[in-house]
Amino acid sequence: MPDLADLIRADAVVFRIKAQTKNEVLLAMAETAVAAYGVDLSATLESTLERERLGSTGVGEGVAIPHARLKGLKAPAAVLALLDPPIDFEGPDGRPADIVVLLLSPEDAGADHLKALARVSRLLRRQDVRDGLRAARSAAAMHAFTTQSSASEAA
């Protein structure tokens, strides 16, 4: 299972997505995944939207973790975004999401997908991590903060 530093590359962080709907957010994040990881845009968007139809990926506290499995992807990978304004991802607390991690895994990555999802979820449950991401002033600052927080969690 890769560390978050490996899971979320610096070029896969989007600072302040300006979107009006969940679908616009997912499109922007899928486009970032195409640039960062070379995945297919339509397959990424289709898989992500299909998973969203099965049930909300909002986890509460202003966080959402949409996820999908993709043919041809070699290892789990993620896109991290801060949204402005927040968008409703139907979290259990009713709060719209402003921190979103799109987790992509290989089609056959059963346990690795679940481990990556758990790792992202565990990190974003921490109030200090959410506060730090919200206080960041750039994509680089968001990535650095996530990497440092992940390292401190593992220690």
From TrEMBL:
Pfam families according to UniProt: PTS_EIIA_2
PROSITE patterns found in the cross-reference section: PTS_EIIA_TYPE_2, PTS_EIIA_TYPE_2_HIS
GO MF terms held by the record: protein kinase activator activity
CDD domains linked: PTS_IIA_fru
Domain PTS EIIA type-2: 6-149
Domain of life according to the entry: Bacteria
UniProt name for this protein: Nitrogen regulatory protein
Source species of the chain: Candidatus Phycosocius bacilliformis
